Amino acid sequence: MERSPIHIEDVPPIGGALPAPEDTPIVVVDDEPSVLSFLRKVLEAEGYPVETFESAQEAFTRISQAGVALLIADIVLPDMGGMELVRRSLEEDPSLSVLILTGAADTESAVESLRLGVDDYLQKPISADDLIVSVARALRHRAQADYRDKLETWLRSEVTRRTEEVQRRSQELELVTVATLSTLVRAMEAKDPYLKGHSERIASLCGRMARHLGFDARDIEDVRTAGLLHDIGMIAVPESILHTEGELSEEEYRQVKEHVEIAANILEPLSHIARAVSYIRCHHERLDGSGYPRGLRGSDIPLAAQIVGLAEYYGSLTERRPHRRAYSAVEALETVRASRDVWFEARVMDALEQVVSSEPELVEPEPELPGPD
Ligand SMILES: [Fe+2]
């Protein structure tokens, strides 16, 4: 798949998205008019928009209207304590920068300031230079935090968007892969009068059994894919063996059994159908350990693999072979029932019985196929 790196030009102009400075004033609150006028003069000389208040309540009302960049507050105020103003203001706007400027510094308020996340705790009298440095630092922190927030939001939405894109592409790739491989299987089966349409029929049966067993749409598709490609490994088994009319020799049977590992090896690189491949790898395993290639037992065999195994067993019986006629659905069911709880779990067998009894036309042999009666 073509890689799609995140280019720096994809990142939105976050700095430009910040509010204009004139919309984000510095609010100064102090009960001494001389202090207010000093602070206003220094800050406006630096180009900052400033709004001054002698009342904490009025300052809070202004902050509640949003858009304030920085609060510079005295601790001792007539109507509301400065620390209370800071606490309420930060609750209202957590992105607000705050400087405490007090003439009565004490440990308690300094600790409280730290706890509230105040940017700086300054003492009066303060020089214009020190004030400017503190204000610039606090506003820089605010801008950085704002940038981080916006970047995080953008990254989160970008990750979601790209994850959805990858999932969509993966589904497309899976469809194309399965379609390509099923074409190959169809071409392979078309040459063989006994196998024509075999994989399509098994896939259809697998899908219906999986649905009956309560699999969700995604899992049903995986089981269907496994059914469609389960015998792709037969491509490596000599035709002379596939068309043998009598019993297979031990060596011939060994070669037939290899179709499972061969299929798994062919399909292994296709990681997007990995689950289907894992079912194919186990579709000849049997509950009692008599299967192949690994002789797995019981719950070590995925339910989905049992579905493919039983669908293949039943489906093959309903198809003609060089040495026998096709079984009817009733005959085939009677035959496979002997393997209930021995090769296949009862619930898998029940699913087959239900599907066959409700939709027999899906699994009946094709009458025009050649073969002995
Ligand atoms: Fe098989």
Query: Strand pairing plus helix content: what structural class?
Result: mainly alpha
CATH third-level topology of the largest domain: Hypothetical protein af1432
Q: What's the average pLDDT?
A: 86
The total tally of domains equals 2
User: Which ligands accompany this protein?
Assistant: fe (ii) ion
CA gyration radius, whole angstroms: 38 Å
* CATH architecture label name of the largest domain: Orthogonal Bundle
Q: Per the principal axes of the C-alpha atoms, what is the gross shape?
A: rod-shaped
What order do the SSEs take from the amino end to the carboxyl end, as H and E? EHEHEHEHEHHHHHHHHH
Q: Could you state the oligomeric state of the chains shown?
A: single chain
Number of strands: 5
Name the CATH superfamily assignment of the largest domain.
Hypothetical protein af1432
User: What is the percentage of strand-forming residues?
Assistant: 5-15%
Largest sheet: 5 strands, parallel
Please outline what is shown here.
With 373 residues, this protein is mostly helical.
What do you see in this structure?
The protein is mainly alpha-helical and 373 residues long. It folds into two domains: 8-156, Response regulator (Rossmann fold, 3-Layer(aba) Sandwich), CATH 3.40.50.2300; 191-362, Orthogonal Bundle (Hypothetical protein af1432), CATH 1.10.3210. The chain has 13 helices and five strands. The protein has helices spanning 33-45, 56-64, 82-92, 107-116, 128-190, 198-212, 217-229, 239-242, 250-267, 274-281, 303-317, 329-337, 346-358; strands at 26-29, 50-53, 70-73, 97-102, 120-123. Strands 2-1-3-4-5 form a five-stranded parallel beta sheet, sandwiched between helices. The longest helix has 63 residues, at 128-190. It binds fe (ii) ion (FE2). Fe (ii) ion is lined by residues 230-231, 259, 283-284, 312. Residues 230-231, 259, 283-284, 312 line the site of fe (ii) ion.
